[in-house]
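Design a sequence for this backbone.
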């Protein structure tokens, strides 16, 4: 992905359609700013060679903590003193950034760099000693970084603490040289700020961002020369708000600070780890969670359970929004709209007003026209709305989280307590007569994560890769994961499953929820929660 100040349609919306002769780069969450989840330049793996006889785990790399962020990939990187390498970048909750040779089984990274002392879970919850929500270890780098190849930088957000200041933590934005791991000029910067407001936690009409109360979960988005990301509650506790920050990628000067509940509460921005999507005109799409809503009234400032359209060229002003008609019920039942992430549909409508797919925890899919997202009314003025889950009941574990995948006019959707589904898109609506993969049901309260690889539209090249668990429980330390490959032309055809190896040689490790696998140049890189990155590929015959 190329960072540019004047956004062109080709650069932003169609970056996944780059020349078939170019090597793959995965520089951002779900591959592109549209958040399609597609690597369309995979020429090695296909439906004929991904099977138990030829494909499996080829090696693993140890890291120092849990990984919730998607691995990133750059080809042909010159590492000082070590030559040219294809590089995979990994970040951990222990605040460490790693660069591994993508094609080597060596456990020694090309370089690693610490972003400071991570925050022990005991710091937040001394009575229980863990952070919950699948987080067992310390809090450090939670979100997926973003890479700017024009500056030669990888951007990460860390969280650190001082043991001498109880109840105080600090978030920092780092710009690291991706060839060495060293901080760029002006890096890091502390993420701080205030906005006018009388909401929960405000003092004298001023609302101050409190790091201690928040998690930085959304992937980082690089749009029009700015790095954007959001904050939500640290485990639904405390006086939290939905915050959005933007920083100039060159200077790390803060360019945007917004709160979507300045006079209320809540409205966290977390999106199941997904980064904000963007279209060719510099519009950025953001989802919010549980909290208050009054934006439909004169002077209203609260945007709870919303899909927001913001313009990166005008300071991220909110130019349109959609809020489901049952917003109050969603808030009451904890059915976050923010549990999903938006996709800008390639080629839909026009490049300046594409359609947007959004979805939340209750399993509904909303097809929105970006020219007017629909606002708030009793009829839900959207292009299309339907329940993609067979039985939507988040309180009982049947729910949807994280990013979907869109490829060749098909939406791939997988909710917890349900099976994988494939919905065909006509260019104006989705067919509800979907194809289903009935072999595997995702465990309740788990969140299958997906990515897709293909060689363009070549027949037999498209594979949907999914990471999930069928044995999830908050009371467990770890949950055994599975990596499963499906024929993307018909997800009823399962190609390969890491769990079917009788020897356990393909074991996928401890499942990391919300974390998509990364596919690049014949290999699949899978993050885990037990301090290991598993690498899958074709075995020597």
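Sequence:
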């Amino acid at each position: 992905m190329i960072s540019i100040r004047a956004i062109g349609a080709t650069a932003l919306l169609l970056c996944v359609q780059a020349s078939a002769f170019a090597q793959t780069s995965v520089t951002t969450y779900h591959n592109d700013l549209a958040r399609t989840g597609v690597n369309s330049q995979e020429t090695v793996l296909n439906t004929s060679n991904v099977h138990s006889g030829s494909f499996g785990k080829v090696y693993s790399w140890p890291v120092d903590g849990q990984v919730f962020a998607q691995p990133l990939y750059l080809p042909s990187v010159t590492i000082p003193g070590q030559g040219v390498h294809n590089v995979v970048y990994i970040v951990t909750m222990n605040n460490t950034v790693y660069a591994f040779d993508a094609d080597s089984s060596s456990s020694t990274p090309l370089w690693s760099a610490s972003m400071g002392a991570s925050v022990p879970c005991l710091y937040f919850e001394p009575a229980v000693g863990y952070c919950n929500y699948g987080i067992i270890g310390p809090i450090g780098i939670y979100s997926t970084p973003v890479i700017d190849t024009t500056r030669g930088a990888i951007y990460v957000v860390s969280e650190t603490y001082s043991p001498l200041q109880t109840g105080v933590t600090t978030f920092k934005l780092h710009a690291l040289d991706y060839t060495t791991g060293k901080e760029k000029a002006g890096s890091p910067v502390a993420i701080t700020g205030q906005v006018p407001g009388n909401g929960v936690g405000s003092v004298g009409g001023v609302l101050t961002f409190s790091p201690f109360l928040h998690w930085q979960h959304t992937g980082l988005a690089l749009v029009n020369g700015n790095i954007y990301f959001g904050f939500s509650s640290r485990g639904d506790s405390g006086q939290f708000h939905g915050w959005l920050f933007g920083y100039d990628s060159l200077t790390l000067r803060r360019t945007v600070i917004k709160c979507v509940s300045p006079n209320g509460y809540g409205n966290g921005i977390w999106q199941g780890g997904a980064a904000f999507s963007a279209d060719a005109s510099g519009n950025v799409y953001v989802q919010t969670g549980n909290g208050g809503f009054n934006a439909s009234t004169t002077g209203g400032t609260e945007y709870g359970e919303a899909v927001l359209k913001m313009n990166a060229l005008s300071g991220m002003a909110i130019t349109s929004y959609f809020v489901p008609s049952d917003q109050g019920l969603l808030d009451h039942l904890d059915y976050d709209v923010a549990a999903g992430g938006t996709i800008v549909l390639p080629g839909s409508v026009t490049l300046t007003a594409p359609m947007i797919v959004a979805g939340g925890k209750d399993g509904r899919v909303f097809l929105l026209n970006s020219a007017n997202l629909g606002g708030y009314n009793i009829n839900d003025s959207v292009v299309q709305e339907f329940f993609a889950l067979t039985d939507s009941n988040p309180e009982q574990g049947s729910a949807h989280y994280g990013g979907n995948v869109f490829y060749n006019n098909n939406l791939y959707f997988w909710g917890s307590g349900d099976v994988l589904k494939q919905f065909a898109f006509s260019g104006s609506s989705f067919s509800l007569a979907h194809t289903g993969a009935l072999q595997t049901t995702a465990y309740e309260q788990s969140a299958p994560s997906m990515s897709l690889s293909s060689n363009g539209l070549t027949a037999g090249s498209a594979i949907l890769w999914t990471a999930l668990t069928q044995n999830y429980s908050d009371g467990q330390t770890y949950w055994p994961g599975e990596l499963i490959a499906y024929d993307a032309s018909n997800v009823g055809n399962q190609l390969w499953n890491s769990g079917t190896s009788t020897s356990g040689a393909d074991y996928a490790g401890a499942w990391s929820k919300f974390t998509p696998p990364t596919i690049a140049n014949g290999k699949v890189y899978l993050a885990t929660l037990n301090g290991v990155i598993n690498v899958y590929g074709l075995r020597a015959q």
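The radius of gyration is 21 Å.
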